[in-house]
Specification:
heterodimer, A: about 250 residues, alpha/beta, Rossmann fold, six-stranded mixed β-sheet, four-stranded antiparallel β-sheet, 8 helices, about 25% strand, globular, B: about 450 residues, alpha+beta, six-stranded mixed barrel, 11 strands, about 50% helix, about 15% strand, elongated
Chain lengths: ~250, ~450
């Protein structure tokens, strides 16, 4: 079954996207009719108070959850029409995820954590080790490959989590409050890496945060949500890699 | 995910909760051990019974008689075969011919006679039988005290236990087993005097026709001294023909002594006579399964035959049922162990709920997650299977050693009552893996169906 909808130039496109939950008698509208379009290589921040629906929207874009109605199309693939197997493949190859609580597997070393997506992608053992070391080197953790997550600081864990998200070179990076558990210094460090990957690899970044200052510093566009609805969008005057190239 | 990756991750996950998984694995191994121990004892007992029956000579022996003596074992044989008068005599030429048949180990005449034996000046009337020298190797005399005949023509005798008791003037009470070693001690090396009737050929009377040549003989009473070399506990009531006798002498000696046989009298009137004929002959077949073929071949030669073929079949059937029941009882422990596997894996899902969510978020498919839990169940089955076979083997061995200690105390020869064939080793391991995999089906499918969003929220 083909899930490609059109030759859509957008990286992410949602139309009238809804995710409702029934909790007893109450209907919770986590995402309620959101339509938006994110361009390839764009760095977008989803902002809102707690319960505004930003993480729910991110989960829908990540293919972790399915919409109640509406469409979510990523690089031409309609996620709502995908099977569970196809969604798993999408998460493996197209979308990389970074979480607030890092979500590294505590029983595994950093190297094993980072090479885990390569195991799912059935990459040969010999090749896997090199790629995982390379990715950890890139985030400055080349010397900590044999350490377990609990032996590392929060910033180091988040960098390892970033290395894992990027190991399969996804076109889309989804970050759910990536600095939420970090102090401002390590938060800046992690955000610098995300910006670097956005700029050098042309990777689309969708970041959920409730810190407006952080969003303004790194994102190109701010999308404000409240009660599951899109309430405002702000484009910021930040030089994108493309515009920087044009300016120079 | 590739097979070796799934296996590697499964083993590493099992190591993470080493105590719980080890206990589950021990549970499986106890189940496998009970299965292996039960079946190995069942198989061992079956082999013991087989050995015993083979020793009795019931299943590899064909008794051959001539139709000329009009005592056919089977009416059908008599009706379909040649008439008694036309049928061949059971003589030495027939023995050579039968011996050359395929699958025949040996054929020897049945020489038996009732005679008077004197020991300590007291007469004892009993049946004496010629024993082929090959009997030395066919372990029919296991548990015999003393030794086998030193030569094929030695003036030696082996006594059956009850006759030895009679010589010593002892009588064991009903249901009591006399100890052969104790009985043999005062008898070994002593001598017996055997009186017998020797048949010697005489010159035919003048005027007698040629057809009577060689059939005229005279009977002379003679005496020989026999040395007692052994005392056997061979059951005199078993169907093995020689066993119906209570004193055994070397077959060649029995032939050389020309002891008068019951058939001799009849032979004097037989038209084909001229050479000594035997009352019956025993044919030992190299394998009980070939008995029927050999029997058919001998029947074609015009003789009557008798064997017990079907008895082994009913014994095999009995042991098949016994093994089935032992297997079912043994498997009960494995069934309990399978519940342990389900419990362990369901607990693992609860504990690793978040981990499953993470794996799904970074690209693991339902198949990957299912495969991982399935592999963990399988790995426990493999470890449990190997450990269980080793444990079952040890239990069986201990029972065997214990039984032999008991048998020794009761003055019985040692017995192998336990046997672990290679197919049982392989079968038990495969069975443990299959049971583990089946037990892992539900937990694996439950893990695969977990909603990643819910799983990631789990603390």
């Amino acid at each position: 079954m083909s899930v490609t909808t059109s030759n859509c130039p957008s990286a992410v496109e949602t139309s009238d996207l809804c995710r409702h939950h029934q909790m007893g008698d109450a209907l919770i509208r986590a995402v309620d009719g959101i339509s938006l379009r994110i361009q390839p290589g764009e760095f977008v921040a989803l902002l809102g108070t707690s319960g505004s629906g930003k993480s729910s929207l991110l989960n829908l874009i990540a293919g972790l959850d399915r919409p109640t109605s509406g469409q979510v199309v990523v690089h031409g693939q309609d996620l709502a029409k995908m099977s569970r197997q196809q969604l798993a493949k999408y998460r493996l190859q197209t979308a990389g995820m970074v979480f607030q609580s890092f979500n590294l597997i505590p029983s595994m070393t950093l190297l094993e954590n980072v090479e885990l997506p390569l195991r799912f992608a059935e990459v040969e053992r010999g090749q896997r080790d090199g790629l995982a070391r390379q990715a950890l080197d890139r985030v400055g953790l080349g010397a900590r490959v044999r350490h377990r997550p609990t032996e590392l600081s929060g910033g180091e864990q988040q960098r390892a989590s970033l290395a894992r998200a990027l190991i399969n070179q996804p076109r889309l990076l989804l970050a759910d409050e990536p600095t939420g558990n970090l102090d401002s210094h390590t938060g800046t460090e992690v955000m610098s890496f995300i910006r670097e990957f956005n700029e050098s690899m042309g990777m689309t970044v969708v970041m959920v945060t409730h810190e407006r200052a952080l969003a303004e510093r790194y994102a190109k566009r701010l999308i404000f949500l409240a009660d599951g609805k899109l309430v405002k969008m702000e484009s910021l005057e930040i030089a994108t890699p493309a515009s920087r190239g044009a300016e120079s | 995910m590739k097979f070796y990756d799934v296996t590697e991750l499964a083993v590493r996950n099992l190591r993470e909760s080493i105590l719980r998984n080890s206990l589950t694995t021990v549970g499986i191994s106890v189940g496998v051990a009970s299965l292996v121990a039960m079946l190995s004892l069942g198989i061992g007992l079956q082999q013991l019974a087989n050995r015993r029956l083979q020793k009795s000579g019931l299943f590899d022996t064909v008794v051959v008689t001539s139709r000329r003596d009009l005592r056919g074992f089977n009416r059908e044989q008599e009706e379909n075969g040649p008439t008694p008068a036309e049928s061949p005599a059971l003589d030495d030429a027939a023995r050579q011919k039968i011996q050359q048949l395929p699958d025949v180990a040996e054929a020897f005449p049945d020489i038996r006679f009732v005679t008077d034996l004197r020991f300590d000046e007291k007469p004892h009337l009993t049946m004496v039988s010629g024993m082929p020298f090959s009997a030395k190797n066919n372990d029919a005399f296991d548990g015999m005290q003393g030794s086998f005949f030193s030569s094929e023509t030695g003036y030696e005798a082996i006594l059956q236990k009850s006759f030895a008791e009679e010589l010593l003037g002892k009588k064991s009470k009903f249901g009591e087993e006399a100890n052969v070693a104790e009985i043999a001690k005062p008898l070994l090396g002593k001598t017996l005097t055997m009186r017998y009737a020797e048949r010697t050929a005489t010159t035919p009377a003048p005027g007698a026709s040629d057809s009577s040549a060689g059939t005229a003989y005279s009977v002379i009473s003679r005496e020989v001294t026999l040395k007692i070399v052994g005392v056997s506990d061979l059951d005199p009531d078993s169907l093995r023909a020689q066993a119906r006798a209570r004193v055994f002498i070397p077959l060649k000696l029995a032939q050389d002594l020309h002891v008068m046989q019951p058939s001799d009298l009849r032979d004097t009137t037989n038209v084909v006579a001229g050479k000594p004929a035997y009352t019956s002959m025993q044919v030992r077949v190299n394998n009980p399964k070939n008995v029927q073929t050999v029997e058919d071949a001998i029947k074609k030669m015009g003789y009557n035959t008798f064997s017990i073929v079907d008895a082994t079949r009913s014994m095999r059937q009995f042991f098949a049922v016994l093994d089935l029941f032992l297997g079912i009882f043994g498997s009960l422990a494995l069934a309990v162990a399978s519940i342990g596997i389900i419990n362990t894996l369901v607990m693992a899902i609860l504990e690793r709920r978040r981990e499953i969510g993470i794996m799904k978020a970074i690209g693991a498919s339902d198949t990957d997650v299912r495969g991982l839990f399935f592999a963990e169940a399988g790995a426990m089955g493999v470890f449990g299977g190997f450990l269980g076979v080793a444990l079952g083997w040890t239990i069986g061995r201990v029972i065997n050693v214990g039984t032999n200690v008991y048998l020794k105390r009761q003055h019985f020869p040692p017995e192998q009552i336990w046997f672990v064939p290679w197919w049982l080793v392989l079968g038990a391991i495969v069975f443990a893996i299959v049971v583990s995999l089946v037990s892992g089906l539900y937990p694996a499918s439950r893990a695969a169906q977990l909603d990643p969003v819910q799983a990631l929220r789990y603390e």
